[in-house]
Amino acid sequence: MNYFKISIEFMQGMLPSPIVGFVQEKPLHLLIVGGFLGVLILAFIVIFFLPALWRGFQLSSLNKKLKALSSASPDTLEKLDAIFGKTKKNLRHLWRQYKESLHIQYDVADSAPSIHATAPAELYFGSFPKRVGKGVL
Hints:
The protein is mainly α and 137 residues long. The protein has 2 domains: 1-68, no CATH class; 71-137, no CATH class. Helices cover 62% and strands 10% of the residues. It is built from 6 helices and 4 strands. Helix 4 (76-85) runs antiparallel to helix 5 (89-99).
């Protein structure tokens, strides 16, 4: 406890007096646990929360761009390539895999093109990326 008082006296010159008074009033174990919890909360915000906000912003922006492409035309796949080309690497890779299952069909009656997939999009985009152990599926 003597060491704690010496370190508080040393900090008095560096910290404002309300902080020094607050630290002097609290028990040491409370300060240690509180500091540890503060570090954990800060790590959670930096490692998980901020990247999740950024990813949510990116996905909502991507969703708006995809909704703007409401009609199928022969150049739709090129437009989709341009949109997904600006996304993160793992989403771009999923798009390339899904694109291989797409093909354009022309209706003989009205010659309107339509894009059909041989595999559902959920197969590729449903749960990206799944982590199992150390590998990524």
